[in-house]
Amino acid sequence: MTDAVELRSRARELLAAQPPAGTDRLDFLRARFDAGLAWVHYPEGLGGLGAARSLQAVVDAELEAAGAPDNEPRRIGIGLGMAAPTILQFGTEEQKRRFLRPLWTGEEVWCQLFSEPGAGSDLAALGTRAVRADGDDWVVDGQKVWTSSAHVARWAILIARTDPEVPKHRGITYFVCDMTDPGVEVRPLRQLTGEAEFNEVFLTGVRIPDFRRLGEVGDGWRVAQTTLNNERVAIGGTRLPREGGMIGPVATTWREHPELRTHDLHQRLLGLWVEAEVARLTGERLRQRLAAGQPGPEGAGMKLGFARLNQQISGLEVELLGAGGLLYDDWTMRRPELVDFTGRGAGYRYLRSKGNSIEGGTSEVLLNIVAERVLGLPAEPRTDKDVVWKDLAR
Fold it and tell me: Choosing from 231, 277, 317, 372, which is the catalytic residue?
């Protein structure tokens, strides 16, 4: 087994062969992937060395200390956190070798075509159709919504209904969709913040070759669970330093502006600071568990805490700032390439955090997941679970 000593040695060999100061950024990232130092727990030849997941920190620390460039993980978070683990688990060898390297280096951005106007919380009710055409192609028609990064993405992970004659969970198939293909139309969705960070995507006669299918026909729901479990960990389980995330700006404001303090605000800030620290440490424990296997429903609990804390902390920050908290820096319509939950001013953080309880699974759905799959409570009655999809009331 590859150990920490060997990984440090490999990282130093990479740095000697590709000095960061004199190497093109993309060339360095490609060389890092080829050396197996991208994600060390992946198999050899796919950016890894088959090492323990926990040893990634050894490589990252060595390269960061030498000033090596990273792959801008926030810009390509959907690819790294959702598409890559799904491709690794369900993709063919050809798919893994085609997609994983440019995904990790950031040469190709990914988005997620899951939610629909009539299938958000009840994702399995989706109506986008994929019909087998002549040859080995599928023809896809439908609409997706709340699609982050669709306006800059080259590829999308897509679930579509391939069999309307079976219950909703059993007639779904999982595909990789080329966002540059004819019939793919991306329209911006302007949000409360003034930005159009999300999009709606219309698919009209989009042809997807069968070799871009992930998993078996009709088994898309099982494949999608891998994506969704990883998504919730990616959103709620990000590694943060103490006072990282939303709590940082509020704590800074508190220290720098004593004139804004009141006893009530102090008590509320202390409580939220403690909760943020507990969430940070819980996330660290979850990541250690991930090192031993695939993410499970525990990620739903982290995502729940992330949403609730962000909304409470940003609300406290606006209240702490008084009249100044009502100001907003810029309503200019933008289509940003990445999400910055803690960026800009307090007003932006307050408004943007409202979406945290929707994206990556609504808080109501995640509460059910935690209740049923973590706590083992009885499941809610579901009268439509065994009903053929085409007979469902819509």
Answer: 231
Q: What three-state secondary structure class fits 130?
A: strand
User: Mean pLDDT, the chain, as a whole number?
Assistant: 91
Compute the distance between CA of residue 127 and CA of residue 160 in angstroms, rounded to an integer: 7
Dist CA 74 CA 233 (whole Å)? 14
Q: What pLDDT is attached to residue 361?
A: 76
pLDDT tens-digit map of 240-283: 889 988 999 999 999 999 999 999 999 999 999 999 999 888 88
Tokens for 253, please give them: 């404001």
231 included as an active-site residue: yes
Distance CA 346, CA 337 (A): 21
Q: Check if the beta carbon of residue 172 is closer than 8 Å to that of residue 161.
A: yes
CA 33/CA 59 separation, integer angstroms: 12
**Residue tagged 């139309």 (tokens):** 185
Token match 């309307």: residue? Answer: 164
Angle at 235 (CA atoms; ends 110, 244), nearest 5 degrees:
125
